Amino acid sequence: MKVIIMGCGRVGEQLARLMTDEGHHITVIDQDQAALTRLGPEFRGRKVRGVGFDRDILLKAGIEEADAFAAASSSDNANIVSARIARNVFGVPRVVARLYDPRRAEIYRRLGLYTISSTTWGAERFRELLIHSEFDPEISFGSGEVIMIMMETPQILVGRMVRDLSISGEIIVAAITRDGKALIPISGTEFRERDTLHLVVLTSALGRLKSLVGMEEGG
User: Fold this and answer.
1) Residue 63 CB neighbours (<10 A)
2) CA angle at 169 for the pair 166 and 171, rounded to the nearest 5°
3) Structural domains in the chain, sorted by start
4) Which of 65, 174, 204, 219 places its Cα 20 to 30 Å from the Cα of 94?
5) Residue 215 in 3-state DSSP?
6) Strand partners, 146
7) pTM over 0.85
8) Could you tell me which residues come within 8 angstroms of residue 175 by beta carbon, excluding any fewer than 6 positions away?
């Protein structure tokens, strides 16, 4: 897949590294040479210095052959302008723009542009962890989308099996500590009193976990 990333800040840089490691053909545009230099000599993609919504720069980056375009700079205006040019002028099939101001997201969605609002996303993660304060994350994965939590077997689960708590893609019983020893359970493993459960959970599924373990919402 041929992808152009406009903006080599923290998000753009990480996206470029991730997609290059996956084998995609990545070109990164940024007007700051220092930002491009941070990618390092081991970076296997292309680097183009210039303004990300300049037609000549986009052509140099290979916009005419691009399968996707990510506008990931720190400027909402620059992201939207470059995304619209990529979509409307060059017909790039997949275009995504990063936005700081969530109020603009709906406007650009109507224009056929996919947007990611880091402000909205971050607020939602805060809300989930504040509301579901009963769960104290041991480890956070990625940017907080997935967490590992530890809890003693709630009474409602004693005598039931791992399959009763597992939801594909949302809640996984990763391990159980029993009598001081850890084990990796199977779907038929029975929960016992005083077991310590180690759960891997989507933060968006914390409300569902509450229901499964008998906690009142908001309690």
Assistant:
1) 22
2) 35
3) 2-118 (3.40.50.720), 128-212 (3.30.70.1450)
4) 204
5) coil
6) 141, 202
7) no
8) 182, 183, 184, 185, 198
